[in-house]
Amino acid sequence: MAYKIGFLIYDGVAELDFVGPKDVFFASSYLSHQNDHLYTVAATKTPVTCVGGLKVVPDHDFATAPLPDILVVPGAVDPSPQLADPQLLAWVAAADRQTTWTTGVCTGSLILTAAGPAKGRRITSHWSVIEALRAQNEAIVVDNERYVVDGKLCNQRRSQCRYRHGAVAGWSAT
To answer: Where are the domains of the chain?
Structure first.
């Protein structure tokens, strides 16, 4: 079965939070799932500026993106603009209704909670937003696990990056 794997991106997104998971899915598609379709999606097709300055041209905008089988919602240092963006939250909610898996990385859990998929579910996030998540009182916050799976929702505290003879990015949820 071929999967459509969508990576939400937006201004201020943490590069490692979507590039690390995208590389993991790319390796899978390259090695054994050649028909998988990996793509980025943003509100518009205007280039997105990531937190580290990397500019990325989205493959699709919300209007043209195929609904993913797997949705990856990455985090940001400050996700408050995304939490206040009704178009982004509506797209995440609509995409989640069609997914087999919805995943969040780091502070992407705040977006998943605001959009609805994480409400009432067990989640985790980066240590800096654990108390903010608890204060929302909309999800069951777990702060002692690298990743948490609740139904089709999987999220993790952060992307992993190890430096040893160069940088190697990983994804805790794999």
So the answer is: 4-170
List the catalytic residue out of 50, 106, 154, 161.
106
**Which structure tokens are listed for 30?**
């390259």
Judged against a pLDDT cut of 60, whether residue 168 lies above it is answered with no
User: Is 50 a known active-site residue?
Assistant: no
Q: For the segment 58-74, what is each residue's pLDDT rounded down to a tens digit?
A: 999 999 999 999 999 99
Q: Which CATH superfamily is domain 4-170 in?
A: Class I glutamine amidotransferase (GATase) domain (3.40.50.880)
Query: Given a cut of 80, is residue 172 above it in pLDDT?
Result: no
State which H helix or E strand residue 111 sits in. helix 108-115
The answer to whether the pTM exceeds 0.85 is: yes
**40 to 61, 114, 160: CA distances (angstroms):** 8, 21, 20
